[in-house]
């Protein structure tokens, strides 16, 4: 059965490293759209989050997932046709309307696909999120516009707004099979385009929003990776504790052992910094000195690139009051 591949029709995310490879600053010509993205980035406009989270491979799983996101019928499910479903049994109404029982039976047929192949998803779940302080209603309006632009008349979808955490977010549930029989195939490039489009819809609602890569902002790793350390301190995982204990042992023996991934992190940072300097030089030469100065300050504010081991080690060092310079010197 054919898969639907999304055409990436919009402008790419800010690929700052490419600017450093374009030659002299005098040859670098920035479009108004590029300058707007650069200005948003150095101003640290809030970054949108679009991620695949969960979904379902069976009718039973789809029902359980919908009950989870609508909090057992307490929250409204907004459909692609403008309906608002609420209460016990709302998920059954939605599943019946989407004919997911037929799709579930087809995907599980012993005559379909290679023997032993795991069932494909019948539902995808996207989480559309913004940092704390974002208007929940504007987030919902932007999510509604995003879903309409990307999926209307192709894939059935529904959404639920969650405001029970610090950051508002929308669960967008999408039927994996389109109305013309094409299955949705989500790639990294697809998510990249969706982030760009979701940020655009938020800006249309008057919400400052940006969509760039972490490396462009000087963020090499996900912030949640520090949860490895926190989980270990709470004794939640023996495996995680052993991971932290190995790092602690290395620190006691004089410093962390060098990691193969560190060179790649440093190389990526150097490429990004060269790109930012090329952009700043070009802006200065074209009379945009204020934006160039903001870029230089932005570069100076980037934290040093660090591996997960180094970040956990830094937390351990601060906890014990040890000398950071002496204990980390072996990683340089």
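^ structure tokens above, recovered residues below v
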């Amino acid at each position: 059965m054919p898969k639907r591949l999304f055409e990436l029709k919009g402008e790419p995310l800010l690929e700052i490293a490419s600017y450093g490879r374009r030659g002299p600053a005098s040859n670098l010509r920035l479009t108004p759209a590029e300058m707007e993205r650069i200005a948003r980035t150095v101003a640290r406009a809030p970054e949108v989050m679009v991620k695949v989270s969960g979904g379902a491979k069976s009718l039973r799983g789809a029902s359980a997932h919908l009950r989870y996101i609508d909090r057992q019928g307490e929250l409204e499910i907004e459909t692609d046709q403008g309906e608002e479903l609420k209460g016990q049994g709302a998920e059954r109404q939605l599943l019946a309307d989407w004919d997911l029982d037929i799709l579930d039976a087809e995907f599980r047929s012993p005559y379909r696909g290679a023997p032993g192949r795991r069932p494909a998803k019948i539902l995808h779940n996207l989480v559309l999120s913004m940092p704390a302080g974002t208007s929940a209603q504007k987030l919902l309006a932007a999510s509604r516009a995003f879903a309409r632009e990307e999926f209307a008349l192709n894939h059935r979808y529904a959404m639920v707004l969650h405001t029970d955490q610090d950051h508002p977010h929308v669960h967008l549930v999408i039927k994996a099979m389109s109305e013309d029989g094409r299955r949705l195939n989500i790639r990294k490039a697809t998510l990249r385009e969706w982030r760009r489009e979701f940020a655009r819809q938020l800006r249309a609602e008057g919400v400052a929003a940006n969509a760039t890569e972490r490396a462009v902002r000087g963020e090499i790793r996900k912030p949640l990776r520090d949860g490895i350390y926190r989980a270990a301190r709470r004794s939640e995982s023996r495996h995680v504790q052993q991971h932290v204990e190995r790092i602690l042992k290395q620190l006691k023996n004089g410093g962390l052992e060098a990691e193969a991934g560190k060179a790649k992190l440093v190389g990526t940072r150097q490429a990004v910094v060269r790109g930012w300097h090329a952009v700043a030089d070009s802006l200065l030469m074209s009379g945009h000195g204020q934006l160039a100065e903001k870029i230089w300050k932005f570069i100076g504010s980037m934290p040093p690139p660090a591996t997960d081991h180094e970040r956990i080690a830094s937390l351990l060092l601060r906890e014990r009051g040890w000398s950071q310079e002496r204990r980390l010197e072996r990683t340089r």
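The mean pLDDT is 80.
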